[in-house]
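[Solved] Which block belongs to which protein?

Original post:
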Amino acid sequence: MPVDPSATIAPTARVHPDAWVGPQVVVGEYAVIEQDVSIGACTRLEPYVFVKRWTTLGERNQVSACTALGTHPLDKNFQGQRSYLRIGNDNIIREHYTISRGTQPESVTEIGGGNYIMTSGHIAHNCRIGNRCVIASCSLVAGYVEVEDQAFISGGVGVHQYSKIGRLAMVAGNAGVNSDLPPFFMYSGYRVAATGLNLVGLRRAGFTREQIATLKKAYQILFRSRLKLEDALRRIENELEDEHARHLVRFIRSSKRGICRE
């Protein structure tokens, strides 16, 4: 049955017969759910939410008023073929937000689980957002951006296409991200620059004193040793036996845009 009997659909909402609406879903007034949409159990859509074709929402998501999910990509190369937006479980997406599906046929925009996405922003086509991230109000995430788990993007940030933001990185408000931001550090400025460890985020994530000290040493080697980048990475590998330091090195070595500096 496309609409589970336990779902609550407002009288003014429009749900396509070919959409699937799971148990205990709540769909608010004037919401629109197109065909080929799947809404997982216990998800709540507030009034005027628009869920477009080929969008999948997992369970226990909360989507606030006037948000549009699965919109056509803001990309001149888009030809209208089938592509997807896939959103995991336990996300909060607040008012007036838009998230696009992929540009190329059968490509995907992916949002993980447990994210808090605040008001009046946009996540563009083919982005990959991890788990337990925060994206604050009025931030704009361009196409093909990757954001690793537990990153924090403050309000008014603009992220250039193809950029990558590492795990537990914190980007200060109104920053302009036009390069890759390695994990565990803080960043700020119109031309974004590293400013130290994300100490608050690391402590909240349960990092020990020893792990934080190791990452502080990695930061000093990377940004303050005056070594060439590859020499700094080799020194981190040789001196710091830590899984998070190894993740930092892997992230930097995989960078295609280059990392920002201090």
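(Second protein starts here: sequence line, then its structure tokens.)
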Amino acid sequence: MAHIVIHRKLAIAIILTVQLMLAMDLLIVIVALKNIQIDLGFTSTGLSWIPNAFALSFGGLLLLGGRLGDLIGQVKAFQIGLAIFVLGSLSGGMALSPSILIMARVFQGVGSALAAPSVLALITILARNPEEKNRGLSLFIAVSTVGASLGLILGGALTTFISWRWSLFINIPIGAVAFASIPYLVPETGKTKGKIDFLGAFTGTLGSTALVFGFISASDFGWTSVITISSFIGAFMLIVLFVWIEAKVAQPLLKLGIIGPKRRRGGLIVMALIGGMHFATLFLILQYFQEVLGYNSLLSGFAYLPITTTVFIISNFIPRLVDRFGVRLLLIIGCMLTAISLIGLSWLTNSSTYIGDVLLPLFLHSVGIALVFAPASIVILGGVHDQDAGIASGVLQISQQIGGAIGIAAIMSVYTANALPNNFYSGLNSAFLVAAGISMLAAVVTVFTIPRK
């Protein structure tokens, strides 16, 4: 019995390490963009595709990744995704031209989309009781949040002291160890009999990709540009077609009943709204650190340590807080704390300081998102059968990815409309106040969709 417990703990540790790696990868290259531009000759427009290529392929293929795990087994899907991710990391680190690096980032996104749903599904399946399940979900959220900040710190350190290429190479040993060890630690999960709904996969993947691309292009080219409008129209038509197909086929890619319960729909909306405001805050504050406070990339990453540390500590208490107060109250408090923190950040000026003006709002923000992300995950995944765990995990992470794209695009458009030339902080007031309003809206959604018990 003791060795089974040790194996379970070791398996969860390896799975969470992979999640940390995947969470880091979206941000780890952002601090190295200037160095990459010099080395490979990217244009200013082309440079934006380094993070965007990853986001597009990741967000667009998550649904297919979740279903694949249910059909072939979560361990096998985890390994396939991990292998593609590692190969993409190797290709990106060795890239000698912009096109090769962008294609490598696409492969990293594909691998992440196949592996990420299995990460959350395996954590859920390894739990022996609801308490262990809640504990695993809390650790998942903590590791994901730590990964965002650690990606900034590690990316800045590797770029400063070695080379930006090691921001990609570092994934190879981690991925190789996880790939080789996980089959010996985790028995293969049950497989759902059936086949892949390829038409649903095509329309769902293309529709979600078009939606993510629409929000990304909105921040780059504006909400009224032909590219943005065409993307949204195409996304709407494809998603409507996808829903129609899933309602008709015998073995759908997405069982519409999974998102049927009102509490689960509410949890997905809250996750998307608060996740979007969190990523928008991450993006704006990073720019504020560099443009106004004069921090370099490494110091900017370290300035996020309060968020990392606080979320990790709070997440350890989430299972007990859920047992005592229920998810509804935690979600409401978390949404309101997030809103209060954003109001505090809206007061930043050119003369603000990190200790005096930024640290307290960042602390409140970290407490708020810790009280939202883990309880919302519990609401979304609660009551899902093991054979549907992968697709439910994919839906959860889609809400995070699309919410993040929406949040950054929407808040950046507000910022751009109110910012003055050569005055970075001038647009922050309006941007953060709108973000605070959206966070309050998430609290209202919680009240009307999440039951008291």
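Accepted answer:
You had them paired correctly. Confirming on the second one: The chain has three domains: 1-193, 197-252, 260-453.
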